[in-house]
Amino acid sequence: MGIFFERMYNMLKIHGMSNSTIKNYLTEMRKFVQFFMISPDKLTKEHIYQYQSYLVNDKNVGYSSFRISVNALRFFYNKVLGWEWFIKYIPYQKKSPYSR
Asked: Going by C-beta distance under 8 Å and a sequence separation of 6 or more, which residues neighbour residue 73?
């Protein structure tokens, strides 16, 4: 993530996020960027769709893990890059009625 790692870290601290949230969000963003090996400011809504499909269909991540990934992506694109319009392209999963 290069320069964006430090910028996101600082923004998370400014927003008063807990150390565990900071760690989780930075880890998720690293995974997202490493999946495509492209700078995150060059990734598009199609990349996000492909990554979310990968998480759900290939990795079979649970609701909580998926939500952390979504929150990290939303924070990055909204707060770090200032792309508020981009948020609508990063959907949450509907929680299963069978979840506790």
From this structure: 28, 29, 32, 48, 90
In this prediction, residues 30-50 reach a mean pLDDT of 94
Backbone angles phi and psi of 21, in degrees to 5: -65, -45
Is the overall model pTM greater than 0.90, yes or no? no
Whether pLDDT at 97 is above 60 = no
Assign domain 3-89 to its CATH architecture: Orthogonal Bundle (1.10)
Q: Which amino acid is at 20?
A: S
Pair 45, 86: CB distance under 8 Å: yes
* Token digits of residue 78: 């909204």
